[in-house]
């Protein structure tokens, strides 16, 4: 009996939270439309968000992309070469790195760096009355904090995904050149002949969707902090977990849709 | 930190817009490399199967990419209806009585489409026309009627293949290097083995010759019987081999030794292969010669295979009278 | 004529923990009220309900006849432009410098503001409170007492019609308390209405037209100070008298 009651409570709580989140997301999108009108206030926040989420994550992203691109090329070349299917390495590079890994790994890094930062910052802003300050001025925290963060994270994630691809492809060539020399022009002409606009567009689409999800989930969790500062880390953990779940599920759904259509 | 805050807008601007630039550039490169911006002309053909076809399989004419497969479907007649697009530059190559040949590369397993131009370059086909494929009766008729040349004589065809192979071999970035090397390795291996085997066989035959004189009469009879039997039953039993080496150790042991020798030879062969890149023309000759000698070897083998004495290798135990080979043990030892 | 500020049966809080219960009162333009009561009486929450931070669960808050939680963004913006809020602690956005913090409501409500005019006013108040050159710093870099004074400055430069102050003297030294009270009095004399949550006798003497006494989330009584004078104590509440302002009433 107790189990049923507990289950019911959990179900009720999560349904309420999902509904609240839905309203929150709706509000964010509504305010996104009027974002340009108040750029005086939001633009600085937006720039800083891109700076922090995007530019400052660039070294880490590049390092990761470079190594992954290199590893895939080296491993793939050795294995595929023995089957006489060495040219498939470009297909693998395109499908694995450009279509899948770039957006998902970038998303994971952005969750780790910025998702946590957003929910912690907003959580602390709640406990420090900063959210109340905005409300007292008539400024909607969603417009001022969430919209700019969402746009910032989307722009940053989108940009980082492109840099990830660039670094992975270039890094792949660079690393492989150490072991078995491949002509630069040949490598890239082969790569581009295997790549389609759809591959890139799917990566871009994913990065935009992931950016929206990560920013919304992290902001929502941050703003859900009530009074105590002890809630902040709890909410941050929740934000990270839910963001990762979201990113993976969204990725699966997009990939499934792509192959179904 | 201060610097970053003062120049946030510029840093973010450069960060974002260079990424957009990269994105746009890659779109442009893809569009160019896949000839998306060029005007394309649709044609269609029919293949008996779709083996090796893919939506990006390229159509080549004298080694030039002049178009590619757009799409293909299985039609009601169980044939593969294939849409092909031809790039603008080569549109005028599509003339009447042209055909398409689909063949697959035995090394990489990839299919390639070759365009074979009709004889009259003035009669340009209108867009959307049907180009017959050589894999279908329509194409074969064109070929038989002599309206198109499928390929040159045998030697130039071989040379073409060798050229192609050497070209592939020579590329630094050749992804199939492994497989081609392995091919050559196996080829060399096989011919070496063949040579050795034939040497052994010769030796064996010489030995047999001198040895057999003693019991010529008996053996003659037996062999005569055996050949009659073989002809009668057309069931090859490898009679001679069985008689000579019933345990399998007399013939096989020396073979093992020669294989070890072969191993050493292969080391040298590998060194040789390393030079292949710089010695292409010479290698071409070697390869042609190799092919010729292989052809000879094949003929020899065929002869051997057709020889009822040896045919069938080491087969089942055959209860032939007087087939005990123990008496000749000492003679065969090297 | 509609009232300047009116609350109708405002309730706020959870079922188990009701913080505000059936709060109804009104305030005419130009008049000021001090809300007093024990720390858990709900006076701070009441200010936040009026200040737009905590929407009431039931009941309405009207400013100049317009419900402050209803309507679109523009309506809410119009109301908020005329009501300023001073927190009991110095609250600022942590990640922007103090100048940006002071100009935050200005930029929002007057996008084409003249920065010279506001900068002049800001430097006037900075001189008045002896704050020196701190505007280029971030909030965390200046002491709490200055942050609190800057909260007042942020409210003053908007020239609001109603200023809500939660514990005006909290975290201030005596000298600053005197300066703050003097300034508040000046604004009051110019016709600005105030709603202050405090138990300070000094503030009451300086500012109150009415005394709203709260206990356990309800308004116990509303005393018209002009008629009856300020009581020294109500029940357990003792009104401290530290600064020593002159009684004007």
Short description, anyone?
The complex is a heterotrimer of chains A (about 260), B (about 325) and C (about 250). Chain A has about 260 residues and is mainly α. Chain A has helices at about 1-35, 40-55, 60-85, 90-125, 130-135, 140-180, 185-195, 195-225, 230-260.
State the order of secondary-structure elements of chain C, H for helix, E for strand: EEEHEEHEHHHEHEHEEHEE
Radius of gyration of chain C: 18 Å
Unreliable spans of chain C are: none
- State the helical fraction of chain B: 40-55%
Number of helices of chain B: 10
Strand order of the largest sheet of chain C: 6-7-8-3-9-10
Strand-pairing-aware structural class of chain B: alpha+beta
- Please provide the ordered H/E string of secondary-structure elements of chain B: HHEEEEEEHHHHHHHH
Overall, the morphology of chain C is globular
**SS elements, strand count of chain B:** 6
* Distinct helical segment count of chain C: 8
* Strand-residue proportion of chain C: 25-35%
> Could you say which overall geometry of chain B the principal axes of the C-alpha atoms support?
flat
**What ranges of chain B have pLDDT less than 50 throughout 5 or more consecutive residues?**
232-241, 310-334
- Strand order within the widest sheet of chain B? 1-4-3-2-6-5
| Average pLDDT rating of chain B | 66
- Helix share, percent of chain C: 25-40%
Q: How is the biggest beta sheet of chain C arranged? A: 6 strands, mixed
């Amino acid at each position: 009996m107790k189990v049923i009651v507990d289950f019911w409570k959990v179900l009720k709580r999560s349904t309420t939270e999902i509904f609240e989140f839905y309203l929150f997301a709706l509000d964010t999108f509504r305010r996104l439309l009027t974002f340009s009108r108040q750029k005086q206030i939001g633009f600085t926040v937006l720039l800083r968000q891109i700076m922090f989420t995007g530019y400052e994550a660039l070294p880490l992203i590049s390092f990761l992309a470079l190594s992954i691109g290199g590893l895939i090329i080296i491993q793939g070349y050795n294995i595929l070469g023995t089957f006489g299917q060495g040219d498939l390495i470009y297909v693998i590079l395109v499908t694995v790195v450009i279509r899948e890994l770039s957006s998902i790994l970038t998303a994971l890094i952005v969750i780790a760096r910025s998702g946590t930062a957003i929910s912690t910052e907003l959580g602390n802003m709640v406990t420090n009355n900063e959210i109340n300050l905005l409300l007292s001025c008539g400024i909607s925290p969603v417009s001022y904090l969430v919209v700019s963060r969402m746009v910032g994270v989307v722009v940053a994630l989108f940009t980082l995904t492109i840099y990830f691809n660039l670094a992975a492809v270039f890094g792949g060539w660079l690393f492989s050149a150490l072991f078995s020399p491949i002509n630069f022009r040949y490598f890239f002409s082969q790569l581009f002949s295997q790549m389609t606009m759809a591959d890139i567009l799917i990566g871009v689409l994913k990065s935009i969707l992931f950016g929206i999800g990560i920013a919304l989930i992290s902001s929502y969790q941050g703003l859900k902090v009530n009074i105590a500062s002890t809630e902040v880390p709890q909410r941050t953990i929740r934000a990270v977990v839910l963001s990762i779940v979201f990113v993976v599920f969204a990725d699966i759904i997009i990939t499934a849709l792509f192959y179904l259509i | 930190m201060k610097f970053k805050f003062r120049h946030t807008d510029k840093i973010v601007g450069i960060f974002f817009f260079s990424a957009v630039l990269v994105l746009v550039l890659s779109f442009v490169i893809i569009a160019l490399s896949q000839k998306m911006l060029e005007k394309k002309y649709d044609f269609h053909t029919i293949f008996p199967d779709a083996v090796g076809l893919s939506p990006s399989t390229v159509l080549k004419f004298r080694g030039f990419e002049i178009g590619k497969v757009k799409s293909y479907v299985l039609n009601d007649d169980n044939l593969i209806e294939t849409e092909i697009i031809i790039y603008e530059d080569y549109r005028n190559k599509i003339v009447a009585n042209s055909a398409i040949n689909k063949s697959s590369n035995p090394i990489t397993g990839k299919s390639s489409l070759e365009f074979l131009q009709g004889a009259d370059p003035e009669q340009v086909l209108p867009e959307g026309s049907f180009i017959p494929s050589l894999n279908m009766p329509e194409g074969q008729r064109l070929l038989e009627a002599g309206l198109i040349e499928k390929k040159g004589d045998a030697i130039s065809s071989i040379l073409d293949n060798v050229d192609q192979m050497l070209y592939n071999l020579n590329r630094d970035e050749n992804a199939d290097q492994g497989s081609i090397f392995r091919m050559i390795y196996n080829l060399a291996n096989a011919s070496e083995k063949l040579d050795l085997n034939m040497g052994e066989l010769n030796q064996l035959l010489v030995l047999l010759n001198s040895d057999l004189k003693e019991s010529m009469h008996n053996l003659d009879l037996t062999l005569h019987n055996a050949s009659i039997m073989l002809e009668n039953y057309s069931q090859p039993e490898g009679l001679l081999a069985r008689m000579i080496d019933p345990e399998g150790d007399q013939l096989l042991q020396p073979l093992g030794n020669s294989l070890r020798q072969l191993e050493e030879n292969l080391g040298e062969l590998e060194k040789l292969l390393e030079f292949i890149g710089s010695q292409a023309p010479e290698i071409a000759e070697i390869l042609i010669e190799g092919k010729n000698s292989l052809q000879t070897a094949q003929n020899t083998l065929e002869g051997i295979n057709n020889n009822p004495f040896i045919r069938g290798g080491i087969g089942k135990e055959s209860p032939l009278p007087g087939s005990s080979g123990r008496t000749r043990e000492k003679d065969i030892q090297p | 004529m509609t009232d300047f500020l009116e609350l109708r049966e405002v309730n706020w809080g959870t079922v188990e923990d009701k913080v505000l219960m059936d709060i109804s009162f009104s305030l005419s333009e130009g008049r000021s009220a001090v809300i007093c009561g024990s720390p858990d009486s709900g006076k701070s929450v009441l200010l936040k309900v009026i200040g737009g931070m905590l929407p009431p669960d039931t009941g309405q808050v009207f400013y100049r006849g317009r419900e402050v939680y209803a309507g679109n963004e523009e309506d809410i913006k119009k109301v908020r432009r005329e009501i300023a809020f001073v927190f009991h602690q110095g609250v600022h956005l942590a990640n922007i410098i103090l100048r940006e913090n002071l100009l935050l409501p200005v930029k929002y409500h007057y996008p084409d503001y003249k920065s010279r005019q506001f900068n002049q006013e800001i430097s006037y108040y900075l001189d008045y409170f002896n704050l020196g050159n701190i505007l280029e710093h971030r909030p965390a870099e200046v002491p709490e007492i200055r942050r609190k004074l800057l909260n007042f400055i942020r409210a003053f430069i908007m020239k609001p019609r109603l200023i809500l102050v939660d514990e005006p003297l909290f975290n201030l030294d005596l000298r600053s308390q005197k300066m703050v009270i003097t300034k508040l009095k000046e604004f009051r004399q110019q016709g600005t209405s105030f709603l202050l949550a405090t138990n300070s006798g000094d503030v009451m003497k300086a500012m109150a037209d009415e005394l709203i006494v709260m206990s356990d989330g309800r308004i116990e009584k509303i005393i018209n100070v002009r008629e009856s004078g300020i009581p020294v104590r109500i029940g357990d509440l003792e009104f401290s008298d530290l600064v020593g302002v002159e009684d004007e009433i």
